[in-house]
Amino acid sequence: MELAEIALWASGNTAASNLERLRTAVTAFNNLPDIPSSEKEKAEFILTFLHRNILRTYSIYQTRVDTALTSGTFNCVSSAVLYMIFCEAAGIKTSGVITKDHAFIIVHIDGQDIDVETTNRFGFDPGNRREFHDQFGRLTGFSYVPAQNYRDRQTINKIELISLIFKNRIADNERRNNFSDPVPLVIDRFFLLLGEALNSSGVYSSESLFADPHKELLDRLINYGASLLRANREEDSLRWAEIASSRYPDPDINRWQEYTFTAVHNRITRFIRDRRIEDAKNFLETNKSLLSESNYDHIYNLIRINMAVEYHNRFAAEWNRRNYDEAERILNEGLAEFPDNRQLLNNRETVNRHRAQRQ
Questions:
Q1: CA nearest to 237, candidates 257, 255, 264
Q2: DSSP secondary structure, 118-130, as one string
Q3: HEC string of 205-263?
């Protein structure tokens, strides 16, 4: 029941009625008169029971256990988690298996590890079952990865298997360009997995099919921030970075620093495009503490370059209107600030030639 509660929590529906529905289904199974006595036959019988009584329609994105219980719609993850729960209730040891884009179950019986493709009623020990191979690929679009293809599959524990519910819900939101709702999901998944999939050295293997949850956490937090940037909400994105980075820092590569630089740079670029140079300068100084010295210098130099361009544009506008005195006043102001700017020095030569012609 603990695994059932965790699975329903990961599915986003912890209503007591769902837990009771699952408890009732497990009790009904345990009270069946024709349950085989051997563990292997019982493990296969559980799969048949689920497909006769609960699992009805395959849907590639239906990863939630509560929905599988109420509607019978399932995918590889929701069916695998349900199968695992029933096996646990029957005293059968299980593990999960993941491939690049699929998940299923291993049952551990009498020293044997037997694959169970839970999306198919013929999926128990599927390697030599013709009925399974005739249906599986057409039903799911996946192909079975046998045990000898160890590079293409990885065994995971029960909690890691349940965490795939979170992972799929996150991906489903992102497919719909929703980057805010995945934030609490990825945080929940991070803490669920904390300490679960560590290898003997205490860090996640870069070769693992099961991605480092800390990296996934940062990916999704920054994805949400990026959605704010795409909406030109740089002030909100900086506030988000301030809050999120203090709670979930990046100890190796400071992606938060890169993100903050992008947010400040984008806002200042828009100020410059709107010819609001003073606002750009003020925005940079307000957010100076968020930037590294090199990133601050980069943006500061960008503003300086555009300040010089603005002096040139103002000079040219007045010069073309033949307001020569005002044009020269603007030019002198610009050269006082940027005495080595090539464009402004060219403007000075224009003024000098014009003065010489008038004399």
A1: 264
A2: TTSTT-BSGGG-H
A3: CCCCCCCCHHHHHHHHHHHHHHHHHHCCCHHHHHHHHHHHHHHCCCCCCCHHHHHHHHH
Nearest CA-CA partner of 186 in 214, 208, 205: 214
Please state, in angstroms and rounded to a whole number, the distance separating the CA atoms of residues 187 and 27: 33
Structure tokens at 306: 């555009």
Cα distance from N-terminal residue to C-terminal residue, the chain: 99
Output the CA–CA distances (angstroms, integers) from residue 160 to 6, 96, 111, 200, 269, in the order listed: 11, 8, 23, 17, 44
In this prediction, residue 196 has a pLDDT band, given cuts at 50, 70 and 90, of low
Instruction: Give the global pTM.
Output: 0.81
Each residue's pLDDT tens digit, 47-79: 999 999 999 999 999 999 999 999 999 999 999
Contact (CB, 8 A) for 7 and 81: yes
Of the ranges 81-95, 175-189, 239-253, 333-347, which one carries the lowest mean pLDDT score? 239-253
- pLDDT at res. 53: 94
Number of neighbouring beta carbons within 10 Å of residue 56? 12
The span from the CA of 353 to the CA of 347, in Å, is: 10
Which among 297, 303, 298, 305 has a CA at the least distance from the CA of 342? Answer: 305
When computed from its CA atoms, the radius of gyration of the chain, rounded to whole angstroms, is: 31
Helix 277-286 vs helix 255-273: crossing angle, to nearest 10: 160
